[in-house]
C-alpha cells in the first residue's frame, strides 16, 4: 500500500475547465443593449482551471456548495462530458481525448454511483437482470451457473437477500436500492469509483449501512474513490484528502485530518463552522456576507471575494492560485499568503 | 398552561384494501415560547404530525382519535372556516420547499399584502410598510425592491427567508417548521437557523422544528420527540436525550453518525429499515432491528415511562443500561 502511494497518481486532472453555453437558439443570443442589437453568448463557468491528483487507494472527497461544479467534475472524469480545456489522465494515459470506442476499457475500470440510484438501475429490469448483464459482459467466459453464483455473491456482499433477486427496483427501500447500485458497480471489478452524493438522499441509519459498504469495498478491493458530498461529517469519516471547491475553483486541498484541525481558507473555515454539532447549544458559525454569485459572470480576482471578510484591493484584481503550506496543504488565498488571517 | 396540548392523536389512512395507522396515540405539550424538535427517519410520521395540527391532512388521511388543544380550543373540532383564523395567523408553517408557500405568479409584495389583508384590516400602504419591516427583520437586503420581485428571481436561501417573514407577518404564537433548511447549503442553513432562533426568542414564539439533523435539534430546541413508525418512542430534554439517550433506537440514531466513530472505522449502523405502515410488527415496532430485544418485545407494546432524563417506550430500558447489544441478523 505504502509503495503504491508513491507511484504515479491513478488520476490526474490538469487545468480542467468546463463551460456550458447558456443560450441555445440563435434568437436567444440576440440582445438589445443600449438601443443596439448585439449578439451575446453567455456561458456558465462550471469548472475553472482545476488541478488535482487522486492517488491509488485513496478516497478523495470534493466538497462545496450546490452549483460549485462538483457533479460537473465527476461527469468530466467519467467521460460523460468533454472538457472545454485542460486534461484528464488515467493511469498515465490521457483519456479526455479518447473516442467512445477507445474509452470502453476505462468505462469498466471506472464506475459511477449517483445520488439517485434510479439513475443507474433500470426500473423495468429485475435486480437479477440488472446484475447479470454487467457480469456477463465483463466475464464472457463464465458459465450460466458461474454468472448466477457471482450475482448471488455480489448481493450477499451488499447485504441484500439473494432470494429477492427476481424483484424490481421499486420494491426495495432507498438504502437497499443504493446498495444494489453499488453492487452493480462492483460486479465488474472496477479500480476507481466516482460517487456523486451517493448517500445524500438517505436517512442517517441507512447512510451508515451504505458508507460501511463503500469502506469495506475500499479495503477489500483496494478501490480508489472520487467521493462527492456536501456532508462534512461524512468527509471527515471517509476521506483521505479533501478538495474544497467554490465557483468551480479550488480553494483548499488537504489531508482530511489537517483540514478539520486547521482549515485555512476563509471559505473552508466558514463551511466547517456552519456544520451543526451534537454538543452545540446554539448556532455559532462564521457568517458570510452576500449571496453565492452565479458562475455566469465569473468575478475578476478571487471568486470568493464578494463574501469574504478578508478581501482587499489585491483580491479584487488578482486571482489567487493554490500555494503549498507548511503542513502540506494547498490554499488559494491572498490573505493566507499575506498572513492576514489569525490562526486557530 | 401549555399553548399546545396534543393528546392521544391518532391518524389513519384509508387505503383501497385496508386502513393503516400513520400516527398512533401521540401526546405532547408545548409551552408559550418553548422550542421542541421532532426527529426520526423518513416515514416516521413527523410531517403528518405537523399537518394534523394545521388541519392540512389530505384524503385518505383523517384524524381517528385524540385532541389538539391550542390556547383553549380543540383544533380537531373546528370547521374549515374557523380554521382560517388560526392557520397562517396564530399558527404559521414553514415547509422544506418555499414554493409551497410562495405563489410563483405574484410578487413578494402582493403576497405579503394579501396575507395581511386576509387577517387584518389594514390599508395597502400600511400593509406594505409592515411587509418591509418584516423583510428587514429577516435581513433581506433592499426590502423595498424585493416587494416588486417574483419568487423565481430570488435564490433558494432568500426565498426561505421570505417565507419566514411571511410566517411572522401576523405575529403567530406557534411556528411549525418542517425541514426548513434541508434543501439548502450548510452555510445558508446556519444563517436561517440562527435567524429563526433569534426571532422565536425575541417574540416569545413557540416552535415545532421537524428535522432529521440531530445537530440542528441540539442547537435550536429545549425538548425533543423521537418518532418511529408513527409513535413517539422517546421524549425529554434535548440535552438529556443527546447526552444520554435511553431508547435503543435513539442510541442507534446518535451512534450511527460518522462523528461518533473514529475516521475510517466501521460506522455503527442500525440494521434493516423502518417498516412500512402496512407492516408494522406487533410488540415493540423497533424489535426486529433492536440489539436488546427479548422475546417479550415481540408481543408487548411498550408504553412511554420515565427513565433517566426522559420518557421512553422500551420494556427493556432498565436492563439495557450497562449491557452491550447482541448482534442483529437482518436480511
Ligand atoms: N448541462 C448543463 N448546462 C448548463 N449549465 C449546467 C449544466 N450542468 C451544470 N450546469 C451548471 O454548472 C454549474 C455547476 O453545476 P454542478 O456541477 O451540477 O454543481 P454541483 O454538483 O456542485 O451542485 C451550475 O451553475 C449549473 O447550473
Ligand atoms: N397521502 C398519503 N397516503 C398514504 N400514506 C401516506 C400519505 N401521506 C403520508 N403517508 C405515510 O405516512 C407515513 C408518515 O409520513 P410522514 O409524516 O410524511 O413522514 P416523515 O416522518 O418523513 O415526515 C409514511 O409512511 C407515509 O408513507
Ligand atoms: S484571496 Fe482575498 S477574497 Fe479570496 S479568500 Fe483570500 S482574502 Fe478572501
Ligand atoms: Mg451535484
Ligand atoms: Mg416529512
UniProtKB/TrEMBL annotation, chain A:
Subcellular locations according to the entry: Cell inner membrane
Membrane topology recorded in Swiss-Prot or TrEMBL: Peripheral membrane protein
Record-level GO BP terms: peptide transport; transmembrane transport
Key words of the record: ATP-binding, Nucleotide-binding, Transport
UniProt main location, coarse: membrane
Keyword ATP-binding: yes
InterPro entries associated with the record: AAA+_ATPase, ABC_transp_ATP-bind, ABC_transporter-like_ATP-bd, ABC_transporter-like_CS, Oligopep_ABC_C, P-loop_NTPase
Signal sequence segment: none
Organism encoding this protein: Pontivivens marinum
CDD domains assigned to the protein according to its UniProt record, in alphabetical order: ABC_NikE_OppD_transporters
One Pfam entry name: oligo_HPY
GO-annotated cellular components: plasma membrane
Protein family per UniProt: Belongs to the ABC transporter superfamily.
Keyword Transferase in record: no
SMART domains to which the protein is assigned, alphabetical: AAA
Domain ABC transporter: 32-272
Protein name listed in UniProt: Peptide/nickel transport system ATP-binding protein
Molecular function as annotated in GO: ATP binding; ATP hydrolysis activity
Domain of life: Bacteria
Automatic annotation (TrEMBL), chain B:
An annotated GO cellular component: plasma membrane
Primary location recorded for the protein, binned into one broad class: membrane
Pfam family name, one: oligo_HPY
Official protein name in the record: Peptide/nickel transport system ATP-binding protein
UniProt xrefs under NCBIfam families: oligo_HPY
BP GO terms, sorted: peptide transport; transmembrane transport
SUPFAM superfamilies recorded: P-loop containing nucleoside triphosphate hydrolases (SSF52540)
MF terms (GO), sorted A to Z: ATP binding; ATP hydrolysis activity
Presence of keyword Acetylation: no
Subcellular locations according to the entry: Cell inner membrane
Keyword field: ATP-binding, Cell membrane, Membrane, Nucleotide-binding, Transport
Record domain ABC transporter: where: 6-254
Signal peptide residues on this chain, from the entry's feature table: none
Membrane topology: Peripheral membrane protein
Organism: Pontivivens marinum
